[in-house]
Write a structure and sequence with these properties.
Strand content: 25-35%
Largest sheet: 6 strands, antiparallel
Order of helices and strands: HEEEEEEEEEE
Distance between the termini: 82 Å
Length: 146
């Protein structure tokens, strides 16, 4: 029993289509966005208690999209906090620094609110910030006012 010429072509085309579909030849590959490692290096006032958790709350999703809890930094030696994460290259990022849990904001040396820190992700980089002093407990960033 042999297959007709038409049946053979039909089987060959079906088989080729299945192979191509399985290889992803029909759908384009997912688009990749380049990311960079951004490291934060934050210096806090000498009177900051050792058990404080410093948090970066910012505009990028990895920083909480301006909502607590944000991105927690790790305490290092003598008033320094660090942490690294991946952010999209080309992203414009703004952020505030807070003491976590009691939500104490960063203030200027004169005691006024500090303008948001900003940077553009141009590749692997370190963002440095120095907290002059801490304010009073406030609402968590992004919480609704009641």
């Amino acid at each position: 029993m042999s297959l007709s010429h038409t049946a053979k072509w039909f089987l060959l085309i079906s088989l080729a289509s299945a192979v191509l579909a399985g290889c992803g030849a029909i759908e384009p590959p997912p688009q990749e966005y380049p990311h960079a490692t951004v490291s934060f290096y934050v210096t806090v006032p000498a009177d900051t208690p050792d058990d404080v958790v410093v948090t970066v709350v910012g505009s990028a999703a990895a920083l909480g999209s301006d909502t607590a809890p944000g991105f927690r930094l790790r305490r290092q030696r003598e008033g320094h906090y660090t942490g690294s994460l991946r952010l999209p290259v080309g992203a414009d990022v703004s952020f505030d620094l807070w003491q976590d849990d009691v939500w104490i904001p960063e203030l200027s040396a004169e005691g006024s609110p500090v303008p948001r820190h900003t940077f553009r992700v141009d590749g692997d980089m370190t963002v440095e910030a120095t907290v002059a002093r801490w304010g009073e407990p406030a609402r968590a960033p992004g919480s609704s006012k009641g």
